[in-house]
Design goal:
This protein has about 500 residues and is an alpha/beta fold. It contains 19 helices and 17 strands. The N terminus is likely disordered. The structure holds adenosine-5'-diphosphate-glucose. GO terms for molecular function: alpha,alpha-trehalose-phosphate synthase (UDP-forming) activity; trehalose-phosphatase activity.
Length: about 500
């Protein structure tokens, strides 16, 4: 990695073009030609900033519609200072490609929720136009990449929004080093088979040199989809098509654990921790932190908590569940329905078990800032991550990173990718089985210190040694190796 030397003989950094649907910024227009930008320090940003050997540029949609040229020019130059390059998508494309094909078709399908049914049937009818918009949007991303690509750059495409991109990029320049990584699960080939554009998407992804997933299972599902749907041969390294090998492998993501551990020492976080401890004195704290999405299993989690309270009256005034659910895709009717459903269940349970001075569930529909989140993680006794499906789930990692003094317990869905890495330390549950989750809550709350320490130690070691930086370095280094191997094979 980063072994290239420039003209002065100095070691030059590995240049990366990171392509994702959204740029890691939020942009707000202040005037005809002025914008204010805020960088969102998500996992991917800290992963790539944390690797000294990388010089990364970001390519993606800024999340705003900018129809006029003056606005586009001003936004491009403001973004350039943050090493970001925008792809301008108009409202119609966003509607068809992003809301339609990505969020209404691929997202539920990849999480085993199936293709649109009943009220979503209208979407199925407009399937072809949404797929056309998806391809068109991917081509627009490819055009921007090709304008900024320089020889020696590595192009790293991210997620289900950009499955068509590797093919577009290779058509532009077959020598371009292209990697593609999926942040969601890749479902069983039986599920992928139902997608009308199943073959075209697989072929487009296979144009990449390296295809990465969070877990070995997802990689295996992808290879078997290529075998069963395209009739291609799966090998231990990947998928082979007429002598061309596309390497397929698992690269489990991590977090920037040091960022969380260091934050706990800050006075403002310590003040927060003190406040929370006083606020919930005498009660055990349980925590859920999720985007408000059907895949996160929030209603199931709350129902399991209700069952626990029902069966364990002595705990009713000794435990509180804090559920922080940041709203997403709020314009989609299904997400609005989910919000009302969660509110209804929380209201009913608080009415049933609450007293004049305390309620068992505190539900917040909002995002918390990083420091408040760290403090919450630190005071938690039991974290509940009950996703129905989840590519990895970073909340479970963040909780573990903040627990080195408390050594709280993690209850984790066996359908989250994180179950593969934190399974030995967590209590694994089937989130659909409310009785099992309720009894796991009881087990976790009553767990002896010795067992808690042992479980926490296992997970803490994993989270602090398999970081986001390692993940990014490994992926890019393997992508470089893949190219070298392919060149050697061609010379033979
Ligand atoms: P997400 O589905 O967004 O990511 P997750 O991995 O849990 O899920 O990451 C969520 C991030 O948002 C965490 O960093 C968390 O701290 C933050 N967050 C969530 N709710 C919040 C709140 N209320 N306030 C503040 N912050 C909040 C997708 C896939 C995952 C995969 C990641 C990374 O769906 O499975 O782990 O990408 O690949």
């Amino acid at each position: 990695l980063g072994e290239d030397r420039n003209n002065n003989g100095r070691l030059s950094k590995q240049r990366l073009l990171v392509v994702a649907n959204r740029l890691p910024v939020s942009a707000v227009r202040r005037g005809e030609d002025s914008w204010s930008l805020e960088i969102s320090a998500g996992g991917l940003v800290s992963a790539l900033l944390g690797v000294k050997e990388f010089e990364a540029k970001w390519i993606g949609w800024a999340g705003v519609n900018v129809p006029d040229e003056i606005g586009q020019r001003a936004l491009s130059s403001a973004l350039a200072e943050k090493r970001c390059i925008p792809v301008f998508l108009d409202e119609e494309i966003v509607h068809q490609y992003y809301n339609g094909y990505c969020n209404n078709i691929l997202w539920p399908l990849f999480h085993y929720l199936g293709l649109p049914q009943e009220d979503r049937l209208a979407t199925t009818r407009s399937f072809q136009s949404q797929f056309d918009a998806y391809k068109k949007a991917n081509q627009m991303f490819a055009d921007v990449v090709s304008q900024h690509y320089e020889e020696g750059d590595v192009v790293w495409c991210h997620d289900y929004h950009l499955m068509f991109l590797p093919k577009c990029l290779k058509e532009y320049n077959s020598k371009m080093k292209v990697g593609w990584f999926l942040h969601t699960p890749f479902p069983s080939s039986e599920i992928h088979r139902t997608l009308p554009s199943r073959s075209e998407l697989l072929r487009s992804v296979l144009a990449a040199d390296l295809v990465g997933f969070h877990t070995y299972d997802y990689a295996r599902h992808f290879v078997s989809a290529c075998t069963r749907i395209l009739g291609l041969e799966g090998t231990p390294e990947g998928v082979e098509d007429q002598g061309k090998l596309t390497r397929v492998a698992a690269f489990p993501i991590g977090i920037d654990s040091d960022r969380f551990i260091r934050a706990l020492e800050l006075p403002r976080v310590q003040d927060h921790i003190k406040e929370l401890k006083e606020r919930f004195a005498g009660r055990k704290v349980m925590l859920g932190v999720d985007r408000l999405d059907m895949i996160k299993g929030i209603p199931q989690k709350i129902l399991a908590f209700e069952k626990f309270l029902e069966e364990n009256p002595s705990w009713q005034d000794k435990v509180v569940l804090l559920q922080i659910a940041v709203p997403t895709r709020t314009d989609v009717p299904e997400y609005q329905k989910l919000t009302s459903q969660v509110h209804e269940i929380v209201g009913r349970i608080n009415g049933r078990f609450g007293t004049l001075t305390a309620v068992p569930i505190h539900h917040l529909d909002r995002s918390l800032d990083f420091h408040a989140l760290c403090a919450l993680y630190a005071v938690t006794d039991v974290a509940l991550v009950t996703s129905l499906r989840d590519g990895m789930n970073l909340v479970s990692y963040e909780f573990v990173a903040c627990q080195d003094s408390k050594k709280g317990v993690l209850i984790l869905s066996e359908f989250a990718g994180a179950a593969q890495s934190l399974g030995a330390g967590a209590i694994l549950v089937n989130p659909w089985n409310i009785t099992e989750v309720a009894s796991s809550i009881g087990y976790a709350l009553n767990m002896h210190a010795e067992e808690r320490e042992k479980r926490h130690h296992h997970n803490f070691m994993h989270v602090t040694t398999h970081t986001a930086q390692d993940w990014a370095e490994t992926f890019v280094s393997e992508l470089n190796d893949t190219i070298v191997e392919a060149q050697l094979r061609m010379r033979q």
